[in-house]
Amino acid sequence: MGCQQPGEPHEDPSEWQLGASWAAFDTELMDLQGNRGISLRQQAVTVSGTRLLSKGWSLRAAVGAPLAGSLDDVLETLPGAQAAVQGAKLWRGADGARPFVSSSLTIAVGWSRLDDLDLESLSSGTLLATDLRLGTAVGWQIAGLWSPYLSLQVFGGPAFITVDGDVTQTTDVHHYRGSVGSSFFIGDALSLFVDVAPLGERGLAAGMSYAL
To answer: What is the pTM (predicted TM-score) of this model?
Structure first.
């Protein structure tokens, strides 16, 4: 949910960046009684603005919309809204074989409507998800054009499922996300990225950013 690009931040403190991304994820939820097996699959699109500050710091805000998805293969998630704020720090820049090291802290919230996949049922409701996420990324710069990286995120936050007036509080079974990705730099302003997460919260993300 929210801010997705963990590659090396630009070092010029005078620049702003505009971004757009698409993401899909597949995770498992459990309720307060420890009952597991509630699957959540969802896609989302976001747009973001990033202010690059001095000494490797950056601040990013993103807004977007959850798209098609399903909850426990019974309820369909319909388009909604989401927002996120992320602070990031570049601790060490890439230099030859020496990798860059960065970290980030993200706060996000998302809301979607729910509808029963069985058209003969009248069940409907909402999904409200909150997220506090701490991430770190390690990667390299190759020829100023390609930046492969490894990323690990740990996170937590309740998700509230409301169906026909009944509210169920849930949380993720796996509170981590391990991913591998790449950023590609085109000219002085445009960059593209792709991120694949096979561990924990599984997902795929892709997007672009443009430095103003």
So the answer is: 0.88
